[in-house]
Write a structure and sequence with these properties.
Strand content: 5-15%
Order of helices and strands: HHHHEHEHEEHHH
Radius of gyration: 17 Å
Shape: globular
Helix content: 40-55%
Strand order of the largest sheet: 2-1-3-4
Largest sheet: 4 strands, mixed
Distance between the termini: 34 Å
Number of helices: 9
Length: about 190
């Protein structure tokens, strides 16, 4: 089977509005971040310069993903400021592409943002999360009981709830993502 080009994947994707309308789990969180995320003058200057590259983006995501609930709207806004159209693909419906962007060679972690040029050549890849966000999650996970503990599932759900609450409401976490994406796009 021939591997599809990134241009073909881009064409298959949904617009941000289509993706948001399709959401059933994290739409409110995604919309809140989208409406409230703010950029510095320096950010905006970088995005204006980035627009000259004429890049586009293919995004692997899913509604249930906590990281996507705040990374997707931030990077969508970056795309808008950079005149960069993003198209969204649901991870589990697009495993052929997902499996080309595994985290640590094994995990289908999302969101993954593949930035391409006009010819469809990969220029940069970002995701699934900023390093400092990963460090924050690690501090929460330290307190989990062993996986075979009777309360592991409940405690795990609690930790991921705390994580999602923090990352979808804290502008400092959004700033971490913005800085990580800018660093990757430079």
């Amino acid at each position: 089977m021939m591997k599809l080009s990134l241009n073909t994947w881009f064409e298959k994707g949904m617009s941000f509005d289509e993706y948001r309308k399709s959401m059933e789990v994290n739409r409110d969180e995604l919309s809140r971040v989208y409406e409230k995320v703010d950029f510095t003058e320096e950010d905006l200057q970088f995005f204006a310069n980035l627009a000259n590259e004429k890049w586009r983006g293919v995004v692997l995501t899913a509604d249930w993903c906590g990281d996507a609930s705040f990374c997707v709207p931030i990077i969508q806004r970056i795309g808008e400021e950079s005149n960069m159209e993003l198209k969204f693909l649901i991870r589990d419906e697009n495993l052929e592409l997902m499996d080309q962007y595994l985290t640590n060679g094994t995990a289908r972690s999302i969101p993954i943002f593949v930035f391409i040029d006009e010819a469809g050549n990969e220029q940069r890849v970002w995701g699934p999360r900023a390093e400092k966000v990963q460090e924050f999650l690690q501090t929460l996970l330290i307190n989990l009981p062993d996986k075979d503990a009777s309360d592991f599932k409940d405690k795990q759900k609690e930790v991921f709830g705390q994580f999602k609450e923090k990352v979808t409401t804290d502008p400092d976490m959004w700033r971490v993502v913005i800085e990580s994406v800018i660093t990757r796009l430079k």
